[in-house]
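Can anyone check this?
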Amino acid sequence: MKRITLMLGTAFVITFSAYGQNDIDAIRYSQIAFGGTARFSSMAGSMGALGGDQSVLNSNPAGIAIFRKSEFSVTPSIFSQRTSSTYYSSNSTDRKLDFNLGNIGFVATFNFNEKKSSGWESINFGVVYNRTNSFQNRMNIEGRNKASSLLDTYIAEANGHSSSDFELFSTNLAWNSYLINPFTDSIHYSHVIKNYGELQKKSIETTGEMGETDISFGGNYKSKLFVGGSMGIVSTRYHESSEYQEVDEKDTIADFKSFSLLQNLNTTGTGVNFKIGMIISLTDWLRLGAAMHTPTVINLSDSYNSTMSSNLDSGKTYNAESPQGSFDYSATTPFRAIGSIGFVINKIALLNVDYEFVDYTTAQLNSSPEVFTDVNKTIRSKYTATGNVRLGGEIRFDPFAFRLGYAFYGSPYKNGDNVNANRTSITAGFGFRENNYFIDFADVFTYYTTYDYLYNPSGLNLESVKNEFSSSNLMLTFGFRF
């Protein structure tokens, strides 16, 4: 518990921290994206007023009521991530490849023979899994810092305290590695880097994903009103491993050669949400859709550890290791509201626009006993409400179909360097469809830029790291109707 208190007492959140619960965790699980079947993805996840695809159940559950036949589908995919990092004018690039399951699901349709008497033409039931976020990434950062060191943050934590009070996952490691040393009063400290100019390097690899299994029901009333609801069971898995180094490779710093910090974090969690939606067919060519998503409450469990080693000019090396830490808590993601308009053009073309409202200031972390008061204040001051826009179209030349899409996800940040951290996706795909089976292909290209810090810049002269992310997600859906 002392670890949590110390971390939350810091006003600035260290973005690249490999352990610890802070506002970054809340936003990580709140920023979901479209995913699932190749058809849905090739239209940028924009089918809220069209329905008839398994993955639309994740955005508007009324889409299940559009199905005329029962259906099973599965979607394997290949995800490729590229990250370019710039730090003190030094640029490094790394890549990550991942094979995964984007979708698997089943929808059952029950048609009524006496539809004219009640008006209800069919009811539908479905159980569908869609991947909603990927944490696959690898990045390398390096640059020469002539103004500060990670050790400065340990000095700030240590001053005024005796060594017996040092935080086990940070300051205590530097102390046991002989990287910080006391003055004569034993409560003030200095570190071994007497003059700056060391090379700072960090490699970070993350793995994992978020997925949601939707259990959905829907009904078709006179082919004019389509309604649906679902319970979403969210699962998440996140792993981060990192190595931070400072190296005097030019031998300009007396009594110091290098030190390294290894950190590992594993997070698993499950949660639940509920969705309701409707689609109204105003004419044969015009449809309107609307959906609301409750906040998702995700119960999370973290495990983490850190190791530090030092290499001094004296020829001595030291190693220190933290205990294995663990902490259980929950994250609550924002409420979402989605409005859609769809066009059906002579049964040969489809066009849909979705607008999604998300207020990231309502995300929060909770625990028992409660230790996240300051973190939740940071969320309310640092983040903002935003809108996400998705546009998708399809044109058919039976049995073939060709699709394009565009998605814009607004930055969740209120101010600072990341205020323009918008995410953009450009999508394309095609499909082949017969009465009883179909095959669809899609490629989703996504890019965005963020600015982050290697460590707490408070009171220090520290340049941010510019990270430029781009990814391609190739997917292939196999489906059967019966």
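Reply from J.R.: I decoded it. The first helix runs from residue 2 to 8.
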